[in-house]
Amino acid sequence: MFERKRTMKRIGILTAGGDTPALNATIYGAVERANSQGITVVGIMRGYAGLMDEKVAHVCLNPLYTSIPELNPCLGGTLIGSSRTYVDPKTDQIATVKQSLQRLQLDGLICIGGDGTINGMQPLADFVPCVLAPKTIDNDLGLNYLHEPNDWVRTEATTKCGYIEQLNCSRPHLDLEDIINYATPGYATAVFVVAQCVQRLRSTAESHRRIGIVEVMGRQSGYIALGAAYGQPDLILIPEVAVDIDQLEQRVRQIYELQRNVVIVVGEGVKTLDGKELGASTPSYDPAGNIRYSGAADALHEILAERIEGEFFTKIRTHETASSSIFTRKVGHTQRGGRPIQFDRFYAAQLGGKAVEMLVAGANNAVATLQYSPRAGFVVSSLSANKLRDQWGEIHARCVHSSMYDENRMQPSEFGEEYLKTIFTNAIGADDMEFMRAELFSPGNLSTRYQSMNTDMRKRIRYV
User: Fold this and answer.
1) Where does a domain end: 315, 335, 355?
2) One Gene Ontology cellular component annotation (predicted)?
């Protein structure tokens, strides 16, 4: 992971994949650390797509080793843009990217992203030192324990060509210190948004005696759904545990009889006992190869509406139709946007700074990580990117470990609660609340047009 030290005078930084609230904070941490080291930071516009463009649009983020004013860690998104374009090393794209990096005269490159970004970064590491600063609201970039990739096995598929991958977990129980990359920047803010959404939808469910199904992001990982427990939903369904529809129906009936409303949180990648993904009956894929889910909440709505007879609702909701008794809501892209809360801002900046330190120390093809222990709290560290890969070279999304979820209660387990408390107990800062009080209903918002950072950044763009 660490090679002979190279002089770092000019480094590049890019953001790839989906946006998260903490990208600017990560860039800010990297630039501030570079300022103290006398290193110039070049922001590459629109991620890997920018390196494939012959013009190579870029911005100097710290002229005279001073951060540009547009770089605000409190703003969501990324001031240098992002894309879901990834480098295919089997094509002539790699030669174009290599030439672009040479024309920019970079001594190193920081890529901010998730597992798709690591895969895009690896071929670049053959000709320029590269490190990754992690980001993803899904919190799925990391490991439950260090040797977890070696527990993945492959078996031949019997119904179609190819193979089936399965994790044969060798660790039925975890300690908090075992977790590699404990929480990724963006996750805390996503949970903050989801918890508020669940609380607000509860009012509607209670007032109208309805069942509300709230769908959250996360793909095959249930960390956002797990964190939604802060909004106090009655039931939480995560992709890691197949849903027993009979058991779910029984629990919904019991809760509805008791309190005349039910709120269910469902992760978008949830499966039934037969292995079918509720939200991907006709899957399509993004450029990173990830399934785009079409609606787990809607599918669950149909299942419950078919199984629970109309009379069950109409005896309570008299003079109203049974079909209106269940409603669904997707939290959607609001999970990925807006101002990051304090936890994300602080640790994203720390990880950005750590990425610069790693390049200076001679790291290549490595990842900055956030670690936790009860004794030391949160600290930044690093890991070889290959440690995340299984024996076939694949990186798997980190899943919620079985010890974190109580599948009978459909809620976080005691250990899952301990995990969440370490992140969220002090995740919101006083300045977060003050910002909301002072800025949301500022009279100036009525008369002043939104000032997009893209407008100011376009004035700074340069081309090779």
Assistant:
1) 335
2) 6-phosphofructokinase complex
